[in-house]
Amino acid sequence: MKLAWFLAGRLLRRRGTALLRTSALAALLAVALGAASLVLVLALMSGYTGALRAGVLAAGGHLIALYPPGLSHAEALAAEGRIAAVPGVVRVGEVVYLPGMMFPRTSGEAELVSVRANSRSPSFVRLPATQAAGPLEVAVGSGVARRLGASRGDALALQVVAAGTPRAIATRVGQVFSTGFAELDERFVVADLSELRRRVPSLAGGGLEVWLADPEQAGALRDRVEQACGRGALVSTWQESNRNLFAALRWQKISLGLVLSLVLGVGAFEVASALVVLVTEKRREFGVILALGGQPRLLRRTLLLAGGTLGATGVLVGMLLGVALVLLLGLLGVPHFPPGIASIYMVETIPLRLLPGDLAAVLALSLVEVLLAALVPAYRASRREPVEVLRWV
Fold first, then answer.
1. H/E element holding 277?
2. 114 with 179: CB under 8 angstroms?
3. How far apart are CA 270 and CA 303, in angstroms?
4. 3-state SS, residue 151
5. What CA–CA distance (Å, rounded) separates 182 from 52?
6. Cβ atoms 199, 137 nearer than 8 A
7. Can you tell me the distance from the alpha carbon of 227 to that of 233, in angstroms, rounded to the nearest whole number?
8. What is the β-pairing status of strands 165-177 and 136-141?
9. 30-to-41, 44, 47, 124, 359 alpha-carbon distances in Å
10. Are the CB atoms for 35 and 320 separated by under 8 Å?
C-alpha cells in the first residue's frame, strides 16, 4: 500500500501534458462546484426549516388544550394550576382566537385580522398596561400596521364577533411587532385576554397554551398534560399541528440533495476522464512497473489513490467554498423576501444554517461518488494482457 501511495503521489506531482493538466483542473473544478452547491442548498433548507420551527414555536404554545363548550373561568384557572404542576411545564395561559376587522384612524379600507387574546403574553409582545377608561392596548403585526398606515400610539377601531354578535372596540397600538414569521406579522393582532373580556363580557372560553422547558418533549408530556386538564380536553402538540409542513420540508431537502448529487456525479466522472488521460500518457511507466513484476492490483490501487486524491481535493475545496458562501450570504442577510413573497414562504428571511450532519453527508457522498467513478478506469487498466503491456515499454 505504501508503494501505491508513493506512485500516486509521483503521478500527481509530475508535470504532465497540457491535455492532462486541463483534464485534472476540469475534474477538480467540477467536483468543487458540485460539493459547494450541495453545501449551499443543504444549508438553505436547514435554515428554512429552523426559521419555520422558530416561527411556529413563537406563534403559540408547545401544547394546546381545547375544552368542550361551557368551561367556566374558574375551571380554566383550576386546570392551569394542575398543568403548571406537571414537571417540564414552565408556563400555562388561556388563549382565545377570534376573527376580526381593524379599521384605520382615517378613511381607508379595513383589514381582516386574527385576534389572539392571551392571559400570558407571548415572548414577542410587550404591551403597556391598559387604562381602565382608556382604549384597549393591542400589539399589531408589522404587515397589518403597514397596510393600515398605523404606528405606535395610533388609535384604531377593532371589530370582533363574540357569541354571534359583532362588537366594536376602541384600541390603541401599544406595539408593532416583527417576528420574521410572516404568518404572525401579516395577520395577527394580540391583546390581553382579561382586558378584552372586560369590554366583551360575552366572550367565550378558548383553550390553554402550555410552554415547556424543552419543546421536543411535547409528545412525551402530552398524556400527562391531558390527564391534568380533565373534563374531556383534547390536547395536541406543535409537532402534530405542523406534521405535514415539516414532513414536506424533509422530503424537499432529501430530493434536492439527490438532484444535486447528480451534478456532483458529473464532476466525479470528470475525475474518471482525467484518469483515462493519465493512463494513456503514462502507459510506458505503467508498462515498466508491470514488466518488472508489479501486480495488476498495484496499478489498480495507484490509479484509485490518484483519482481519489484528486477528487478529495476538489471536495475539500468545494466544501470550503460552500461554507464561505454560506457565511457571506448570512452577513448580507440574503435571501430576504418582500412582503408579498414572504407571505408565500411564511418567513421574511431564511438564515443559512450549517449542520455538522449535512457537512458529513456531503463529504461522504462526494468521496463515494469520486471513488466509484475512479474505479472503472483503474480496473480496466489493471486488466491489460501481459503481451499488450510489453508493447507499452
1. helix 243-281
2. no
3. 14
4. coil
5. 10
6. no
7. 9
8. parallel
9. 17, 21, 26, 46, 18
10. no
Rounded CA separation 144/50 (Å): 25
pLDDT at 351: 92
Whether 317 contacts 32, CB under 8 Å: yes
Tell me the backbone φ, ψ of residue 221, rounded to 5 degrees: -95, 0
Candidates 144, 137, 148; CA nearest to 174 is: 137
Q: Write out the three cell numbers for 36.
A: 459547494
Mean pLDDT throughout 258-275? Answer: 90
Averaged confidence pLDDT in the chain: 88
pLDDT in tens, 290-305: 667 677 788 888 888 8
DSSP reduced 3-state for 266: helix
CB 381 within 8 A of CB 279: yes
Scanning the structure block, which residue is given the C-alpha cell 378584552? Answer: 196
- Give the helix/strand (H/E) hosting 174: strand 165-177
Which residue is listed with cell 412582503? 339
Which DSSP helix (H) or strand (E) runs through 298?
helix 296-332
Residue 200 contacts residue 160 (beta carbons within 8 Å): yes
How large is the angle between the packed helices 356-382 and 296-332, nearest 10 degrees? 150
Do the beta carbons of residue 33 and residue 267 sit within 8 Å? yes
Whether residue 172 contacts residue 138, with contact meaning beta carbons closer than 8 Å, is answered with: yes
Does residue 116 carry a pLDDT above 60? yes
* Interacting residues of 72 by C-beta distance below 8 A, sequence separation 6+: 205
Helix (H) or strand (E) holding 137: strand 136-141
The answer on pLDDT for 156 being more than 60 is: yes
Question: With contact defined as beta carbons under 8 Å apart, do 208 and 229 qualify?
Answer: yes
pLDDT in tens, 32-61: 999 999 999 999 999 999 999 999 998 889
What angle, rounded to 10 degrees, do the helices at 18-59 and 356-382 form? 150
* pLDDT band, residue 219 (cuts 50/70/90): very high
